[in-house]
Structure formats: structure tokens, C-alpha cells
Amino acid sequence: MRRVLLRLVLACALPAVLVTVWWVASAGSTDVYWPPLRTILTAFPDVWTADRLRGDVLPSVWRLAAGYALAAVAGVALGTLIGSHRRVRAVCEPVLEFLRAIPPPVLVPVIMLFAGIGDTMKVAVIASGCVWPVLLNTVEGVRAVDPVMAETARSYGISGAARLRSLVLPSAGPQIFAGLRQALSIGIILMVISEMFAASNGLGFTIVQFQRGFAIPDMWTGILLLGTLGVVLSLVFRLVERRVLGWYHGLRASARRSP
Predict the structure, then answer these.
(1) CA distances for 243 relative to 24, 177, 239, 247, angstroms
(2) Of 15, 85, 162, 163, which alpha carbon lies 20 to 30 A from 52's?
């Protein structure tokens, strides 16, 4: 219990200091672009009403979830295929290096040409950026499967789907989740960017509308909400990760305790 409280205090200490510094530094501000934090927090409940949360936040979360899920499935499937076969990896590696070097925001106009300006475009933009960290980490995770375990599985005649389910994916799991964690941050960024192009709702669209209308405190509330959404999604991700990779975290804890 004491350890949990200590971790909670350590996790909250820096945000509390930063908020205090922001509050004090902006308290007497008369700059229209740098309103006092008190003004921003006062405006928050008036801006983000239940209707606005339904109309702008939920569509953003849905697009992020759809693009992220698409990228996760495609990245893990292709990464497993490429990582499992040396020749496939040799053929695909130059193309992957070329594609991963292209910044996803550059693809927004191209994707708009093929997918229009609806939700499909936004989901495609998010998926196109999220897929690379998942794919590349999956490739590396599959390549790093313990050769002794691989040989043991081969000796016992474990192959095909059973080998994938019992050996490859569990062994590559930590690396796959590392890629999924990176992809989550990229997905939030691309969600906002995609909604700044030809959108009629969403968090990115709303923040830009506030900025164009010189509703600066309202714009800052949108930025705060976006950061809060990122923190919540990160916590949810960590819970899922600890649940799925419980064996891995238990192994690491055991290794740390051993002399």
C-alpha cells in the first residue's frame, strides 16, 4: 500500500508543479494569446458540454480506434510474415525502409484524392502512420525468438498455427506492445492533423475553429482536453499491456528480486 501511494505521489508531483508554475506565470497575463490558466479552466465546462463531447470528441475517438485497430492487425500480421521468413524479409526490407521514411502527414492530400474527405480518409491517415512502428517491432520481435525454444518446438513437432500461438507471438509480445505504444502517440497526432483537413467535426477541427475565431481560451481548453485524452488512453493501454504480458512483467520482477 505504501509503495502504491509513493508511486501515486511521484506520478502526480511533476504535473502539480507544472500546473502551479503555469498558474503563477500566467496569473497577471494580459496577452490575448496567453490567457491566465484560471480563465482557461473557468471556460472549460462551458466549452466542453455534453453535446460537444458527443459531437466532436466521440467521432475523434472512434476514428482513432478504427485506424489504430486496423494498423495493429495489419502490422502484426505482416510483421509476423516478414519476420518469419528470411527471403520475404530480404525482398520487403528496402520497400519498408522507403515507406517508413515518408512522413504520414504528407500522405493526407494523396489519401484525400482516393478516399474523399469523410471518415474513411481520416481512418486511413491514422492507420498509414500507426502501422510502421507495429510492423517493424513485430518483425524484430519475431526475428528474436529464442533459437533454443524454436528448436525445441520443432523437435516436438509444433508447427503452423500452434507454433505461432504458443511460441512466436508470446515471445514477440513485449516488442509488439512496444510498437503499439509508439503507434498510440502517432495515432493521436494524426487524428488531429487529419481533422484539420476538410472536416466538419472532431477535436482537431474544433481547436482550429476556435483559433480562427480568436476564441483563444476555448482553443486552450481543447488542447488541455487533447492532452487529457492522451493520458487516459495511455493508462488504458498500460492496463491492457500488464494484463496481456503479465507473465513477462512477472519474469522481470522476479529477475530484479533475485541476487
Answers:
(1) 40, 12, 6, 9
(2) 15
Q: What is the pLDDT of residues 57-112, one digit of tens each?
A: 999 999 999 999 999 999 999 999 998 888 888 888 888 888 878 887 888 888 88
135-148: pLDDT as tens digits = 999 999 999 888 88
* First-to-final CA distance of the chain: 24
**Exposed/middle/buried for residue 134 (C-beta within 10 Å: 0-12, 13-18, 19+):** buried
Separation of alpha carbons 229 and 8, rounded Å: 19
Cα angle 184-254-154, degrees, rounded to a multiple of 5:
75
Fill in the DSSP letter of residue 32: T
- Residue type for 86, please? R
State the Cα–Cα distance between residues 148 and 154, nearest whole angstrom. 10
Residue 182 C-alpha cell reads as 509508439
